[in-house]
Amino acid sequence: MRPEPEVAGLVWDALEFARNVRVAVGDTPLETYLEGGPVAWATERQLELIGEVLGKLRTAAPDLAERIPNVHRIIGMRNVLVHGYLVINGRIVWQAATKAVPELIPVLEVLLADFDAAAGPAE
User: Fold this and answer.
1) Is residue 122 part of a domain?
2) Using CA atoms, how far apart are residues 34 and 70, in angstroms rounded to an integer?
3) Which residues contact 89 (CB under 8 A, 6 or more apart)?
4) Mean pLDDT in the chain?
5) How many domains does the chain have?
6) Among 6, 25, 47, 94, which is most exposed with the fewest C-beta within 10 angstroms?
7) What is the residue range of 31's domain?
8) Are 10 and 58 in contact (CB under 8 A)?
9) Is residue 123 part of a domain?
10) How far is CA 119 from CA 23, 42, 63, 93, 122, in A?
């Protein structure tokens, strides 16, 4: 269930979208990914959403956003996916989905756990 406070909710959303990338791309090899289709569409959409949420997080809590490695590059990728669709490099998107996102997930999990710890035990 998504936490209510705005900043914690943004981290939660980013984590959910990152997990969705992992599901969308799965173990799809690069050659298959480059053919396009539903796997690429779903992967790109989830990457867009990660970038969108992290952009909001950067505005709402800049110090927290800075704890996320490559946050500016992630947001930049979102901008390319949304606005530069003619120049999307499928190899870079696949690399982000299969290498960078799996590294992002544990970072987001730690940030979310920090919120849970700060909130204290549930009543």
Assistant:
1) no
2) 24
3) none
4) 92
5) 1
6) 6
7) 6-116
8) no
9) no
10) 30, 34, 19, 36, 8
